[in-house]
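A common beginner's mistake is to predict each chain separately and then try to dock the pieces by hand. The better habit, illustrated here, is to supply every component at once so that their relative placement is modeled jointly.
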Amino acid sequence: MLQIQSLQAGYGALPVLHGIEMSVGRNEAVAIVGPNGAGKTTLVRTLCGLVKPMAGRVLKDGVALTDLPAHRRAERGIAVVLENRNLFVELTVRDNLRLAESAGRKASGGSLRFSLDEVLTLFPAVKERYHSSVGLLSGGQQQMVAIARALLLQPDLLILDELTTGLAPKIVKEILGVLNNLRTQGMAILLVEQSITIAAEMTDRAYVLSVGKVAQEIRRGEWQAVLADDSLIKAYLHG
Amino acid sequence: MALQACRSLIALAPTALLSLYPLPALAQTTASREPIKLGAVISATGAIAGVGLPEREGILLAQKTLNARGGVNGQPIEILIEDDASSPDVAVSKVNALVHSHKVKALIGTSGIAQTVAVGGITAPLKLTQIAFSGLGPAVERERTCVFHITPSQELNARALLSYVRDMKASKVGVLHDSGYGQVVWNSMKDLAGEFGVTWSQVEKFEIAATDLTTQAAKVRASAPEAVIVISTSPMPFRNARQVRLTAPIISVHGTATYDYVKAMGDAADNIIHAEFLIAEDPLPHQREFVDLFQKEHGRLPKHFEAAGWDAVMSLAQALKTAGPDAANEALCSAMRRPYQGVMAKFDFSAPDMGGLTLASFNYSKLVKGKFTRLDYSAAK
Amino acid sequence: MSASLVMQAILSGITNGFVYALIGIGLAVIFKGTQIINAMQGEFAVIGAMVTVFALEPAGLPYGLSILLGVISGAAAGVIIDRLFVQPMMRQRAGEESFLLLTIGLAVTLSAAVLYLAGRNSYLLPSWGEEGVIEILDAFLQIQALWLIGTAIIVVVGLRLFYGRTLLGLSMMAASMDPDGAATNGINVRRMRSLTFLLGGTIGAIAGILVAPLVAVNYHMGIALTLKGFAAAILGGLSNPLGAVLGGVTLGLLESLAVVGFPSGYKDVIALAMMIVIMIVMPNGLLGRVGRIGG
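With all components supplied together, the output reads:
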């Protein structure tokens, strides 16, 4: 349902991404891996509308997204959790979620796959701290709030950038559990990850990004082979 | 024979036709003579635009009226008016241009003391007649005998106020003055207390841009004055004084005796006495003509600043008539130096202060519910 | 120094204080919504008052309608400034200093425009109810001042409810706190910024319309109002409307009590010196850290 064709994007005059070709199908979980500076975050920002492409296009369900401003991408079923999470730190968890819920309601025309109650059930820790200011939460709790907020936008494609960086293993496990659940319910997931292991665990296939280009595609069933091959890992994944 | 007659007729026709057209008058008309060039520099913008703009209106009306009556012995006047934006530096450069490039015969202006002193440095050495809308100021002006002053000096203003205070038998006087114009007048006034038999019950100062003076007004009220002198270029002290129930009569200098101020004072424009010059609602006989002309031209009544503009032009025209339009600077200046009955007041330009205003020159008015009424009081005693 | 004089100073200080507060509230709203310090907030007040004055006379409209027009013109001015100047500068990723320079430049330009259109006169608006004063302990408070204080309080409470309870208010805060986060959560950040300026312009215009019956408004009042309002906002924590009220009243009281105790010429020196002391002791303003966040 997501097609990226010959995408070229960057900041100012210099492109960071060159001729990117990718796709994510319904129900698929796809990872984007690669060393720092490869352009992964730029790709995420372009997909969610914060960066305008210089060339090429992005299609969702066959319709080009190129000129759609960021705040309207939820209408096309796209939700994102950015690297910095970008939570409204001085507001409460409740207010953060309310904003997304209202946007999701508008975007989906009233049909809610993820109600506020459901989302709170998915993340009990969030429910506990419902009236706290987000700034007072731990890293893991904030990450959960960020995902909960994204779900309330009623997406069918969830994009996650560096989800697990800096989180305790226990929290990571909990979050991944939730994501797996979502996958079985039909959510498509695009995961930008530093950790190969997590990427391999969570996704069916992956694109390896290097210096702004797709250096390699790891297809279905190829993960095992990649994990076993040290040289590949070194070459592409640690820059 | 008939053909011959026809031909003659046809030959005569052009001449006959020509005689139907009026020939251009060969006699001399005012339109064909060179106008007498005069310069004027007033403050149409900036801090003292409040006085400069009415001065300009008076100047323009005088020019129009004078030229309609044949100008100076048949020669029209042309006044080149410039704006000095209330700045002495700008005034100097405008005057330089008027004097040296346009070669004006005399200068009217400026609207403020600082500018007048500054441009006096240009006109005085040339003995160029200058008629200023400011009172005699620093010592140097006493030597500038061709710079004439149409408005009173600050000391005379102060004396005019104190005369009234003394004669209304008030001895305890409160004072509210601003940090600019008010400070200047206050400086001239404070040492005159003894001479007029008054004591200052409370003196309060406020800065020019202040928007609320109720506390200062309350302090003055607390001193139980019998009269209050307000010197300000803002309507606020008048309003605030009344708001704190300061009911003593307020006496002020002519600067605030204009319709703009009255409007801005709102309800407070009541029981305020001004030592001023022109009460257009009830003009003196010699002021009536000007008031009528101004009202016809602008649809409203004039005050003394407009009259000052008028008097400057008319007194200069009189001197030009006497000395002749091509008179040298000294001759014109001499011709100015004599008594002159203006609309605003009776001047004596031959006096040592180049203006000749005295306490007797003042007309006192009282604001009664927003209207100027003439007070039957004269300060000359 | 008598009790009635002190009382007069208090009443006068509170009145002035609420004038500063209203300007400060507008500044706080705009800063809260856009992180921009609006040096032309006082001009919104002048625009609001002037439009009302000219709608009343010579246009001859009823007072209520004139006030409405005045408020609308303040709102419109805010939106125009945002669309014409702020948005393009944001697209170019201009820095904070640039915006400050922009608003200063606009303040001077607007002041000149008002001078050109309305002249140099001062204009009074009629009082809202009866003209007159009420007497409290031998000191006097104008009835119009009560309207001003009442309206300021309503504005503050209204803003609190708006930002805290309504989704639109939350969205405006969110757009300011984290534009990327807001955009990816369905919030039209540009529109929120315009709304912020609209709100700031409206509040500024209301301030001008409330003040004009007390103090004749003219073309050069804007800058003086902005300075006082800025002081009020800073004292209150810069993005907190309630803080601006506290800051404004504090400043007003400091000024008028200074006049009572010292020769009036020193009023500004004393008030501002006290302000400096307060800022040193409480750098986050009177409300402390809370002030910087909430409202």
